[in-house]
Amino acid sequence: MAEVADPRLEIRGLEKSFGGTRALSAVDLSIAPGEVHALLGENGAGKSTLTRIVSGVFAADAGSMRLDGKPHAPRSPAEARRAGIAIVHQEPAICPHLSVAENVVLGAEPARFGWVDRARVRAEAGRALALVAPELSPDAASSSLGPAEVQLVTLARALAQTDCRLLILDEPTASLAAPEVERLFEVVRRLASTGIAIVYISHFLEEVERIADRFSVLCDGRQVGSGAIAGTPATRLVELMTGQTLEARRRREPRTGGEVVLSARDLAGTRLPVSASFELRKGEVLGIAGLVGSGRTELLRAIFGLDRVTRGELRVRAELGPASPGRRLAQGVGLSSEDRKREGLAEALSVAENLTLSKLPAWVRPARQASAARRLIERLGIKTAGPDQPVRALSGGNQQKVALGRLLHHEVDVALLDEPTRGIDVKSRADVYAIIDELASQGKAVLVVSSHFPELLAICDRIAVMHRGRLAAATPVAELTEHRLMLDAAGVG
Hints:
- By secondary structure, the chain is of the alpha/beta class.
- The protein is built from 17 helices and 22 strands.
- The protein is 34% helix and 24% strand.
- The strands form 5 sheets. Strands 15, 17, 18, 19, 20, 21 and 22 form a 7-stranded mixed beta sheet that branches. Strands 6-9-10-3-11-12 form a 6-stranded mixed beta sheet, with helices on both faces. Strands 2-1-4-5 form a 4-stranded antiparallel beta sheet, with helices on one face.
């Protein structure tokens, strides 16, 4: 580890486990005042666990932290904020019905005699906005803000509620367009120039090369490299992140696809995707690789009719025409959302109701519904007390099997799967892979979005990489490596 004189944050031998899973192992980190330090690693590398320990969400199992030379072991996020730790999460959230000033002080409103002090609200918000967005009026309606302005208001909130010494930015540009990224970079540089130490988490290596001074890379919970960004090639960063200098080629022969059942030409959405063209064939699994904010999910939503298409051509078999979820289901196209809780499942309903929800007759016989559900429960190995058990009572892996089981019950010809193994254990992940393989072997066409590149290499026949809303041509997996995918997704290929 590169040493830093008089570090703002110094971490030594940090350890954290969750049950039998080691999330962090002997991590050392040192960040100087005024430094922008990039924290890099693939999904699951330990970045979030590390920042949550620093910001008081988790307690470390072992190791030590020092902030400006003094012991730092916050027992809560509030205690971390009082120590000068501010964090801006990947998905900024504001209350649209409040003003900008009210959002900046949200949760820490200054009060006088038990009432919110409106003058102080405006003054405190104004001071924070002056640092990051002086052009924004504290009185502006938050509902009128664009994505970049929402990000800046969230940043102002983090700064307003603490005497900030260390700022953690988690994927801050994931939802921003290029001009908005430049604006954020100006703010980051301005804050660093005041002596604030900044931890910058991003998958976009071209951004890291421009904004960061030094880097640290985590891989499987261990720190595997650190140093100055200047003079470190992006290919070296990818090697450290993936843990391999040369990825082994896939051994399984790709499936031979049949006729084209889904195709897009120069497809664009309201914001994302920017341009996507592809062909998906019967009996094949096509992967869409990309990083957070690249437009992968928006592409699937546009295909399924959940988001508006503003340009381009989309065909299901040879059919053109406006898309809606109802029409897509009638055409044999089904979607499994990455957000199981809000979009993938009806948590208030039973396992049987969730499995059969998209294909019910005008009148439902409970016995027939339960019988169909039992067949799917047995076929997919869903661990449940029975068809009538509420789906919310199942584990994440079994909930995911229910979401996929609904596509099987609907007998879809085209399955759109968005992060189908997110948040599930290793055994459930293998079961999901088997379901995907079964669909393809039955002649179904499967389009899989995943940010876990080894997963795509293991289950797909071809993979197309999306970067900043643009989808590259698909490549057979035999010609790809995890290293290559990471370079292309990060925009440095």
